[in-house]
Amino acid sequence: MPNHDFYGPGRIIMTIVAAMCLRIAPWPAAVVPFNPDWVLLVLIYWGLTLPERVGIFHAWFFGLLTDVLTGRLLGQYALAYSLVIYICLKLHKRLRQFPLLQQELFIFFCLLLSQLLLFLIKNLQNPAQLHAAFWIPVFTGTLFWPVVYFALRFVNLARSLK
Amino acid sequence: MDAIGNFFERCGILNKLLGNSGWGYQSRSCTIKLLFATGPSINTRLLVAVITSIALLVTEHNNQQLDKLRSFLSFVVDPLKYLVSVPTNLLQNASDTIRTYASLKEENQKLHESQLIHQTRLLKLEALEKENIRLRALLDNSFKLGEQVLVAEILSVKAAPFEHIVTVNKGTRFGVHPQQPVLDANGVVGQVFRSQPLTADIMLITDLNHAIPVEVNRNGLLTIAVGSGNLNQLILPYLPNNADIHPGDLLITSGLGGTFPQGYPVAVVDQFTSQPNKPFASITATPKAQLDRNRELMIVWSNAAPIPLTGKPANETTEEKQHAQP
Fold it and tell me: Mean pLDDT: which of A105-109, B17-21, B148-152 is highest?
């Protein structure tokens, strides 16, 4: 098997694992509410750049892992991630043409959709307990999209150079 | 051979890792992807994913059947928690290593003194315990034995904001199970909320979803202390305006409800405001346990079955040890 073929999925998995680590990292208490959904950002990137590699079921599986990681009810991140990746796969050809700023708008709506689903599920469990700060990760995630984009593009291009 | 090579090239390791039966069509669609899409369309896949997720959500919300799946997946995910808490642990270890001889000696002396004091108190405690058993036997009452503890270290992981849940490095492998009480040196910390093979999640008493039955140590007034969402505050929402409770009163576990053993300090009342226009007073309390400064917690196995009147405490203790460390 050629080397680069082995590396592709390996790198995707490595970046997602790194995102999961960032997700649960022991940030100071003041930063925790701002911590964006890194796993979803990374999945969106791979969904847009390698739509033939990253499918809905991959997103679903990593969503399930995120559920276990953050101790949620099983299936809620899986649901949110597979929906968002579905949209990414549908629109990836158009979105690749967009400048970064327009991409940001799209990312914002993706994150909002995901957070909205989590909100609805959380609300079904025990209503009216959520902070307004629950919505902050949507905005910080949008802000961090360029960082994720360039970091992962570096990873992706380093692969093709090899 | 060429076809097989092509197959692997297109589908990659990820598909191989993830699936067996259900993933066949995707492999096929990969191989001929460029011309025709075969297998279920992307819409169908989304439908399958959504339905499975909702099925999982509903199942787990209603019963415990998915615990096995969760603990299986936690084998993949829990090493990450250990990995993430490595830097913090290293930092703490480093700061432990680079300490001066003088400070160590001073600390050693202090510990010696406090150990001596505690030891003498314990001497008395044993006599008191015996006396208590004897007195209870006179009263035709049964006696509950002490508890067995397991020390667990907190992993420095922040899984979810707005929730006071910490993760410790002991799980079902050490026999930790949900609803076990958790203590530190000063008082009640919380209870085990979910246990996985390698880790366990502990809900602190200050979590919004947590409530603990307590009694006022001074007069035995029973009530419930509810978490406020702040790490340094509990709320006592169910006491009337004329309740006999003052700032400074110690709240201890009442043992009602069966989760927490009776008699452990929980909090100290710090504010009592009567609200004449409302049925209940507004009372807040400060937890005794140092909820944000602990590195180690004690998970408790309490022996719920009372010892019979003529029981021999020595035998019970050994039995309980076996129970606690299976």
Answer: A105-109
Q: Annotate B225-281 with DSSP letters as a single string.
A: EEE-SSTT-EE-TT-BTT-S--TTPEEEE--TTSSSPTT-EEEEEEEEE--TTSSB-
Q: What is the pLDDT of residues A116-160, one digit of tens each?
A: 999 998 888 776 667 788 899 999 999 999 999 999 988 888 766
Q: Which residues of chain B are within 8 Å of residue A131 when distances are taken between CB atoms?
A: 162
Contact state of A73 with B60 under an 8 Å Cβ cutoff:
yes
Q: Is some CB atom of chain A closer than 8 A to the CB atom of B109?
A: no
Instruction: Choose the closest CB to A52 out of B33, B74, B165.
Output: B33
Quick check: pTM over 0.80? Answer: no
CB B222 within 8 A of CB B237: no
Q: pLDDT, tens digit, for every residue of A100-118? A: 888 899 999 999 999 999 9
Judged by a CB distance cut-off of 8 A, whether residue A93 touches chain B is no
Residues of A whose CB is below 8 A from B209: 126, 129
Q: Which domains, from first to last, does chain B contain?
A: 2-63 (no CATH), 211-287 (2.40.10.350)
CA of A62 vs chain B CAs: smallest distance (Å): 10
* ipTM reported for the complex, 2 dp: 0.86
